[in-house]
Amino acid sequence: MSLFAAFDAERPAVPRVSVDPAFLIRDAEPRDVDALAALSAARNGRPLDRAREGMRRRLDFENALLLVATIGDAFLGYAGAQVLEPPPQPDGSATPSGWYLTGLVVAPAHRRRGVGAGLTSARMERLASHDVFAFMSDANRASIVLHENLGFARVLDHFAYPGVSFTGGSGSLYRLAHRGGDAKMA
Fold first, then answer.
1. pLDDT tens-digit readout, 46-71
2. Count of structural domains, the chain
3. CA 173/CA 186 separation, integer angstroms
4. Residue 118 lies in a domain
5. Phi and psi (nearest 5°) for 47?
6. 88 φ/ψ angles, rounded to the nearest 5 degrees
7. Measured distance CA(11)–CA(27) in Å, rounded
């Protein structure tokens, strides 16, 4: 299984194979841990028990958000955001502290059907009164185009974050300026 959605530069980013009907996006709850851990384990190739521990911890993070996309009892994907204070970059340059989108995982059968865009848009709505940052692998063209189509702009090439390795070796930092509105997250 590929880590990233298939991407064809010749195919427009907006049209999809089909849009999943009436999926629901909501806050993750403790009862979701097993389903989210299964998605995480499949995506990241890690043992299920380790993924389950990671999901439990994510639900306990302060200044964090974890959303899920479902249709009935089926989990299509999840996405997070949290306040991070990145250390200086290897070249000594500063990296902004603030809200970061932290992971977008969509089950392979539901990729390129609006689930990732829905989860990302929902995070943006919740964080509308904040600048929002996202970092991603430069090899993940589907994610880059998704974020750029939603208004994110690349602000730093060769981005580094402790404990994060990028498929293909390099990643970039993107920023979306606050859009006003009332914050639902502090």
1. 899 999 999 999 999 989 999 999 99
2. 1
3. 22
4. yes
5. -60, 145
6. -55, 155
7. 32
Residues 119-173 have pLDDT tens digits of: 999 999 999 989 999 999 999 888 899 899 999 999 988 888 888 888 888 899 9
What is the DSSP code string of 103-144?
Answer: EEEE-GGGTTTTHHHHHHHHHHHHTTTS-EEEEEETT-HHHH
More confident residue, 106 or 95: 106
The CATH number that applies at residue 131 is 3.40.630.30
**Model-level pTM?**
0.80
DSSP H or E run through 93: none
Interior/surface letters 56-85, b for 16+ CB within 10 angstroms, e for the rest: eebbeeeebbbbbbbeeeebbbbbbbbbbe
Strand, helix or coil for residue 25: strand
Q: Say if residue 4's pLDDT is above 50.
A: no
**What letter would DSSP give residue 59?**
H
Query: Is residue 185 assigned to a domain?
Result: no
Tell me if 107 is assigned to some domain.
yes
136 occurs within a structural domain: yes
Domain coverage including residue 77: 24-176
